[in-house]
Amino acid sequence: MRIRPVVPLLETDMTIPPKPDTRPVDPRFSAGPTRKRPGWTPDFLENNPSLGRSHRSAQGRKVLGNVIDTTREVLEVPSDYRIAIVPASDTGAVEMALWSMLGPRGVDVAAWETFGYGWITDAEGQLPLEDLRIFRADYGRLPQLYEYTGDRDLVFTWNGTTAGVRVPNAGFIPADREGVTICDATSAVFAQQMDWPKLDVLTYSWQKNMGGEAAHGMIILSPRAVERLESYSPPWPMPKIFRMTRGGSLDETLFEGFTINTPSLMCAEDHLDTLNWVKAQGGLQWMHDRADSNAQVLWDWMDRTDWIDNLAEKQNERSNTGVCMKIVDPRVTALPKDKQAAFANQIVKLLGDENVAYDFGSHRAAPAGFRIWASGLIEKSDLEALIPWLEWAFETVAAEGL
What we know:
Blueprint: H1 58-75, E1 82-87, H2 89-101, E2 107-111, H3 114-126, E3 132-136, E4 153-157, E5 159-160, E6 165-166, E7 181-184, E8 201-205, E9 216-221, H4 223-231, E10 245-246, E11 249-250, H5 265-281, H6 284-303, E12 308-310, E13 322-327, H7 330-333, H8 337-353, E14 369-373, H9 380-400
Parallel strand pairs: 2-3, 2-4, 4-7, 7-8
Antiparallel strand pairs: 1-9, 5-6, 8-9, 10-11, 12-13, 13-14
Helix pairs in contact: 1-5, 6-9, 8-9
């Protein structure tokens, strides 16, 4: 059925093209929570002995311990690094590190998108840090990371979730550094290679590259990070959910599955199911390769399409998970910013109404465009089927202003 046109956003003589014949099998392209793994069903819940049990029980501790052990195996985490399940998703994990570790030496914070800017807010406005430097860049590019000298602590995101710009590697971090590096890797881990010797704190959530449910975070600590926790006591009050030490020593039980607050064992079983699926498919490199192949579908399309471009300005900095795009058609870019956003949002709404693609709009603070998830959980055929629909929606909205 033809949708009744409203006031056009663009003056154009374009005609509405026919709809594509093939639809994505799964229209969920959200950047988080992301879709469940291919073939996922709730069967793992049937007669599951951990459901309805206390997370402090032997059964509950076993499940949480299995999540930690399987995480170490799948992510190839060094044996001397500690892994814990923590409250409040990736945000909570990053906050734990910032409030527990920063202060004894100068701090550098590098950010180039919304979530990284949030860590700047903590460092500048919440924590009383006396020696602070900010490395900032706008959407589409990295800041001057090579200004980091290694004698200071460093806070950065590996993959800018709302900008689609990632660090190509950790070469900017000196191997002989004295400071602690804190890395928000929530949209990078399971899709991009982590340089463990360069990372002292790594955080992420289950709901990004693993399709888990919300509110569960992970924090991984190097021996250097543990040393900082045990040798430094912050001068500010420490909320309970941030505490990783007891009596000046690391709380070892936290890293054995004895969580600070109550986790969902149902969510833990779900995450364990996906971790085991990754193992069965071929492991971490399989996930990396699949994300690269999926992202390449979108990169190739942008390279041959005039009206859309990758938000990441440099090819080696393009994300292979949340692929962020900006509309560059001059008829759109000539509009006021709110009209540009409205145009992009009309495309997102149109494809959502068609049950072709859900929740793929760019972040409200980013340039007008899209953010399409392309990690190892996505089927390449769904991305290939999506592209003709994106072209149809653009032409339709340009012609009708839908």
